[in-house]
């Protein structure tokens, strides 16, 4: 276990680089002086990356070409919601892309990968049955109850990470992102969620500012660690601006609460993110944004 800052790689492959997190990650790495190879099925706008590969992350030849000269991988390419394809397309695309990227990277001798898992990996938030989390705060060991192809693909991706580490010795961090967007989009989501707070109860009203998400990715690429790790992430408060205890009493009265919760949350246990990655969220949609770039860089060095 670590949390110590590590050295930056020289070149990182970012898959899904045309997506919202992929673009923010590409920009962050370039700002930090890291060369980026951007891979995506298509690019709606020109990528700022210095090398661009258009292709499918499920295709071994495409991935092998994209990995040339790379020392670390950030794998974000996926169909990010079960409604965006048939169950077999969503599951098949996500798990084959993750397997292909980690297997190719492992066989090429690359030592570090970060993959996008999800708060949905335990299955309860998107479950169509009447289910609740086994407890709050949500942590990486919470029991699974999965009834959709997207959540299952993220659970399988985490298993693929463990397999790739055992088979090829590539260290992998699977980041369980909650809802992660820019602050303006999150504020709009917060307005909708305030009208129907129960709709977000099973994901503990969790969210993350994309700037914090990208900082977590950078830390997961750089901190010294070995093995395959699943890491839950969250802002330090809740998307709905109401006291956590009141939300739990109203919308999840039967779910046990296993540790003390701050007045405004979070309801995701972020101990592992702090201890393994040295990650603390800096941005909240409910506070004036005092987190400057200087503070962010300071937090990375601290
Ligand atoms: N945004 C969120 O709230 C959120 C929350 C939890 C997890 N995640 C995960 O984070 C990752 C990135 O999410 P995002 O919001 O940036 O999604 P996005 O839809 O904006 O971007 C996904 C990108 O992946 C590309 N892609 C899809 N299939 C591909 C394939 N087979 N080969 C190559 N490229 C492919 C798409 O073209 C797109 O550029 C995904 O794995 C998603 O499941 C996102």
Radius of gyration: 18 Å
What would you call the shape?
globular
| Average pLDDT score | 95
What would CATH call the homologous superfamily?
NAD(P)-binding Rossmann-like Domain
> Please, how many domains?
1
Q: Give a quick account of the main beta sheet: strands, pairing sense, barrel closure.
A: 7 strands, parallel
The helix count comes to 9
Q: List the ligand species.
A: nicotinamide-adenine-dinucleotide
DSSP summary, beta strand count: 9
Q: What percentage of amino acids are in beta strands?
A: 5-15%
> Percent range for helical residues?
25-40%
CATH architecture: 3-Layer(aba) Sandwich
Structural class: alpha/beta
Write a brief caption for the model.
The chain is built from nine helices and nine strands. It is of the alpha/beta class and 302 residues long.
Write a concise keyword list for the protein shown above:
single chain, binds nicotinamide-adenine-dinucleotide, alpha/beta, 9 helices, Rossmann fold, two-stranded parallel ribbon, globular, 302 residues, seven-stranded parallel sheet, 36% helix
Q: What would you say this structure looks like, in words?
A:
The chain is of the alpha/beta class. It has a single domain (11-301), classed as NAD(P)-binding Rossmann-like Domain (Rossmann fold, 3-Layer(aba) Sandwich). It is 36% helix and 15% strand. The protein contains nine helices and nine strands. The strands form two sheets. It has a seven-stranded parallel β-sheet with strand order 3-2-1-4-5-6-9, with helices on both faces. The protein has a two-stranded parallel ribbon with strand order 7-8. The structure holds nicotinamide-adenine-dinucleotide. Residues 15-16, 18-22, 40-42, 56-58, 76-80, 93, 97, 116, 118, 177, 179-180 line the site of nicotinamide-adenine-dinucleotide (NAD).
